[in-house]
Amino acid sequence: KAYIEGNYAKAVEEYSAIVEGGEYSMKLYYNLANAYFKLGETGKAILYYNKALRLSPSQEDVRHNLAIAEAQTKDRITVIPEFFLNRWLRIVRNSMSCMAWSILSLATLALCLAFGLLFLLASAIRWRKAGFYCALCGVVLFIATTSFAISSRNDMLSHDEAIVMGTAISVKSSPDRSATDLFVLHEGTKVKILTEVDEWVEVVIADGKKGWTERKNIEEI
To answer: What pLDDT was estimated at residue 80?
Structure first.
């Protein structure tokens, strides 16, 4: 109601209270991201769009809004090209949620068992052949869908990515405030966390550059 009325600060307050209460869902994160975006808090918006995608990677509305928010960030980082097979597998995996892949995996397992029984119990040779080859195909599909389900779950539960929250932060050569500044990152840029030392984290960006920054400068997805 607050969001519809244009009271985005109140909407953020209400949505955040739900999140702090331990609840989560794609729609909750998506609505919170939209409210932050309306307030001009690009970093927070990108953070919660990414959280929403973790739960439901096939949501095109979320991806569209995330792309709009990312277009407003200052950093223009050249992404290292991804091997085409990895890219294709990632696109296929992101076409459905972890739950959907899990259900499909169980369905293919049931089909494997059904065709296995057909192979074992059928009296006619043609039906036994059909059962054998269908069961074989089912095993391949079961392995593939189970792999996608496990990969999607691991990605959803991982905490190795974060969003820069500071307006402009210096990434240093070592976990020390007096260390050399390597480069500067701005609000909304995504980084990957490599290691942690006390209140410092080593991060790497999409073009392969890496360095150290204080944990308070980033927020995990």
So the answer is: 74
